[in-house]
Amino acid sequence: MAQQQTTCLPNPPAVLSFANAGGKYEGDGPLAAWFDWLETDPFFGEPSFEKAESALQQYALRKALEKAGLQDTDLDCVFGGDLLNQCIGTGYAMRNFSVPFYGLYGACSTMGESLSLAALLISAGYLTCAAALTSSHFCSAERQYRMPLPYGSQRCPTAQWTATAAGCTILTAGGGDAQGPYITHVTRGRVVDKGITDANNMGAAMAPAALDSLLAFFRDTGASPGDFDRIITGDLGKLGSQILVDLAGRAGLDIASKHSDCGLLLYDLDRQDMHCGGSGCGCSAAVLNGYLLTALRQGEFRRILFAPTGALLSPTATFQGESIPGICHVLCIAKDKE
Amino acid sequence: MAQQQTTCLPNPPAVLSFANAGGKYEGDGPLAAWFDWLETDPFFGEPSFEKAESALQQYALRKALEKAGLQDTDLDCVFGGDLLNQCIGTGYAMRNFSVPFYGLYGACSTMGESLSLAALLISAGYLTCAAALTSSHFCSAERQYRMPLPYGSQRCPTAQWTATAAGCTILTAGGGDAQGPYITHVTRGRVVDKGITDANNMGAAMAPAALDSLLAFFRDTGASPGDFDRIITGDLGKLGSQILVDLAGRAGLDIASKHSDCGLLLYDLDRQDMHCGGSGCGCSAAVLNGYLLTALRQGEFRRILFAPTGALLSPTATFQGESIPGICHVLCIAKDKE
């Protein structure tokens, strides 16, 4: 029997509220209207880029709590993480809230991982209300993963642009004021490494992981791409998206007409110079916790697959000649409880 | 009503198997007899310290699978993480296994976090068999967090020694060959930061988080320290342990006669020059997945609290003048299902 990677949630948790925040380029992009806060100062009033990222996360959590009419002590748990070494964006954000916390590292898949774990534990009845939270910041990521910003290094065409953004979803056991949408299925991803060593081509490195998890979802559930309004990865970018659609086709899975990618939705690549598109934990987090969940709530979408991907590399691993392991966690999010 | 941080697991998952590995100093310590593999080569046959740490994790997972008579594809999920930037010890280990993976970052609390999440999802019936996995390596941690090893920097008296070790627990829904022990309760920790800024005194930084979670456990369950054979933190070291026992006493919780710390159990501080004791994700992981689980299986202990603590700092945060947030996750582990 094939390994089961998907859980069909017996008690689909409801989205109680959601919030996001972004920076200058996110505000110039096509999804600007779906942000709660857009700020042109990359420091967000803080003395460093890392503290700015932590402030973004705190805003997203506070705003989501405010929209839900909750205090921090009403939450049973926060699941969160980010791209910074030792996940300090999240760790330092969470010291300002009185909430139990499970820290995650899933690179750019973190919004999927955090939402999956929160949904599983709420469906099980172990938590009543929990938040999934993540962020990224172009400036903190650039100096940590690539070069100091003042060098003005030239970016290569396959490079993606780390979003300066954060997003938070608050899930609840349902009932009461919860309007949904609902998390109905989660698929746990495996680590897939096909030998890509170019850290400036992460879409190519992550596409096989996205395929692996999407195939697992369709195998485990018996669903087909036609059952969904959209299949939205995050963040393969332009090249990685083409690779995924191509690889999926060869595996007998036609997703060409259904596929979108958060890295392509967040920016207008014809007008904004983001090369292959957006990336970073905050990219899929901001797209989900603005445009996508709104579209589901308003009935524009009835059912989507949300499939954030992560590249589990580090600069140290790259310097040691390593290839790039990828991972992808898939969630089925539906307007109605079904 | 006080915030509930503890889940009493309705279906306590059983420990199916466990394994650990360590380096030269762990082999010189008092727990040497409880290791599956002790190796004096700090490279463990690999070309870098980071790859050595990843090899240690792979060994721990393979050995635990072997003891359980399982293949990797028999596992429903691995929960794991480590101290390295972007958790590459775990990410690169997991690409060699065909198992769904949730990556965690809880610093030295990761063994508690991974075991908690695995236990919760098994008790819920969503997973049948899952592994909790973590590691640390003195040499990879030292050059990442402190100084290049060839500098021979002098360590200050409050410093702790990052264990070169890994540990893995495989949990199952019970029945069949599972001998236990069993995970009966998990308490989710909050982030606590009391303003300690000395990154060479992490025991002091983490002790208040340990107290916060232990108080939550006793408040939520109505249990008292007398109900346990041991209350074992990891890794507060010598000074942090004294601070915890003192703070607990002032809060009306007398744990003096019950408290041990993995950082004090792993080395003989009179004979080994580890200053304040052991630390690192691998420290509590190796102590649990050798000495502690064996003692529970053999009936030397009937019930323990396992409370690994983590310091959620990074060198970047410290350079920016930040204090050190701590976290602690508590598990009640019992010989019998109760």
Derived from helix and strand composition plus strand pairing, the structural class of chain A reads alpha/beta
Total of helices of chain A: 10
Report the order of strands and helices of chain A: EEHEHEHEHEHEEEHEHEHEHEHEE
Low-pLDDT residue spans of chain A? none
Q: Describe the oligomeric state of these chains in a short phrase.
A: homodimer
The top level CATH class name of the largest domain in chain A: Alpha Beta
Q: How many separate domains of chain A?
A: 2
Proper CATH architecture of the largest domain in chain A? 3-Layer(aba) Sandwich
* Greatest chain-chain contact: A-B, 59 and 59 residues
The percentage of residues in β strands of chain A lies in 15-25%
Task: Choose one word for the global shape of chain A.
Answer: globular
Cα-to-Cα separation, first versus last residue of chain A: 28 Å
Average predicted local confidence, pLDDT of chain A: 96
The CATH H-level superfamily of the largest domain in chain A is Stage V sporulation protein AD
Examine the coordinates and then state which fold CATH places here, giving the name of the CATH topology of the largest domain in chain A: Peroxisomal Thiolase, Chain A, domain 1
Described by strand count, sense and barrel closure, the largest sheet of chain A is: 7 strands, mixed
Count of individual beta strands of chain A: 15
Helix content of chain A: 25-40%
Radius of gyration of CA atoms of chain A, rounded to a whole number? 18 Å
